[in-house]
Amino acid sequence: MGLRIESKIVRGHKGADPHTGAISFPIYQTATFKHPGLGQSTGYDYTRSGNPTREEIEKTIADLEGGLAGFAFSSGMAAIATLCEIFSPGDHLLVSDDLYGGTYRLFEEISRKHGLDFTYLDTGITENVINAIRANTRAVFIETPSNPMMKVTDIKSVVEIARVHQMLTIVDNTFLTPYLQRPLQLGADIVVHSATKYLGGHNDTLAGFVIVKDQVLEERLRFYQNAIGGVLAPFDSWLILRGLKTLAIRMERQEQNARIIANWLKDHPRVEKVYYVGLSDHQGHAVCREQASGFGAMISFSVRDPALAEAILGRVKLIAFAESLGGVESLITYPITQTHASIPKEILDHLGVDEKLLRLSVGIEAVEDIIDDLKQALA
User: Fold this and answer.
1) Which helix (H) or strand (E) holds 281?
2) Separation between Cα atoms, residue 182 and residue 98, nearest integer Å
3) d(CA 152, CA 123)
4) What is the pTM of this model?
5) How many Å is the maximal CA-CA distance in the chain?
6) pLDDT tens digits, residue range 95-105?
7) Which domains does the chain have, with CATH numbers?
8) Nearest-CA neighbor of 304 among 246, 354, 257?
9) R_g of the chain computed on alpha carbons
10) Neighbour-count burial for 280-293, b at 16+ CB within 10 Å, e otherwise
């Protein structure tokens, strides 16, 4: 029976523990496994190489994204760092110019030392992608919607270009999750997630995923995951499994709240501009509507005075001034000094990430309470 994604999210890969029938998949909190005999294995030998709890979340996320295999890591950055190992010194990657500061830091301060080269560009403009391709370009790395300016890239268009030039298409799907957007089904080769965010959903666990649909990539990633060892622990795997079960209803409530809040902010006299893909006048609205079933719950907005931005961070009460995003609690952050502090000022200036910009991760609280908090903070 073919299940709809809402049911797959709740059920997981196996549905229950096949050995005991436990509905809540067990935590196999062990570092090693007993061998039946010399040259024999239960299929599990050492938790870095494989663990039943981690395997369940890996297969579940692969099912949800429509991939062949998923790999769970101790954080989103551990996932992307391990993914970089599929490339060789001298390889060149095209990267969305508006992206999480931690990814930029990894690429510039670590991956460059290992011989990789990067060009940052607006991947939402296909001509930019075509013009930036070199003989040694091996992949395009996309965030869509991007962080924090909510820029949208047409995944199918980039895939078409990448295939002609024998490049991989990698999509960071953290903001929309497989509930709203499935890049592999749009032709992408690899999907990455910070599962710390919406997939876990409760601001209590660090985790990251890489999902692939090609057997060669699966074999390479499996080797690198085991060799490098930044794997997700059994208990954290279970926390993501537990959090994931409510993904559909959380995303629906959060997006519903975000739409209302974005429209409210848009009409506020002290707000200069609102960046939310769900607004019909957002530049990427039509493309996102074509390739996704929703717009998510991330909003960035600029106020008219930098001093007001700082004041808002000190005045919010229900909304927490905190980094991260995607949990049930509403969080507000200041990208220029927090999530994007590693990115050079000239790039931030070009993107519009300045002292007036705030990023809001909308939670599941009563939308009236969130708006009341914003109202008093903006006063």
Assistant:
1) none
2) 20
3) 8
4) 0.97
5) 74
6) 999 999 999 99
7) 248-378 (3.90.1150.10)
8) 354
9) 21
10) eebebbebbeebbe
Which residue type does 351 have? L
**What's the residue count for the chain?**
379
Sign of CA dihedral 185, 191, 195, 201: negative
Q: Which residues are CB-contacts of 349 (< 8 A; sequence separation ≥ 6)?
A: none
Are 222 and 71 in contact by the 8 Å Cβ rule? The answer is yes
- Spatial CB neighbours of 374, under 8 Å, sequence gap ≥ 6: 261, 264, 265, 316, 319
Active site residues: 48, 100, 172, 197
Pairing of strands 271-275, 298-303: antiparallel
Per residue in 185-216, pLDDT (tens digit) is 999 999 999 999 999 999 999 999 999 999 99
Q: Assess contact for 275 and 299: CB atoms under 8 A.
A: yes
- Side-chain-side CA neighbours of 303 within 13 Å: the count stands at 21
* Per-residue pLDDT, 1: 65
| Pair 369, 318: CB distance under 8 Å | yes
Pairing assessment for the beta strands 137-143 and 168-172 based on DSSP bridges: parallel
**Is residue 162 within 8 Å of residue 206, measured between CB atoms?**
no
Residue with tokens 């290992």: 114
Strand partners, 191: 171, 211
Number of H helices, E strands in the chain: 14, 12
Task: Please give the helix or strand (H or E) that residue 62 lies within, else none.
Answer: helix 52-65
**Nearest-angstrom CA–CA distance, 289 and 248:** 18
Give the residue carrying structure tokens 């990427």: 284
At residue 218, what are phi and psi to the nearest 5 degrees?
A: -60, -45
Phi-psi group of 152: left, alpha or beta (phi > 0 → left; psi -120 to 50 → alpha; rest → beta):
beta
In this predicted structure, the answer to whether residue 183 has a pLDDT above a threshold of 70 is yes
As a whole-number percent, the residues of the chain with pLDDT over 90 amount to: 95
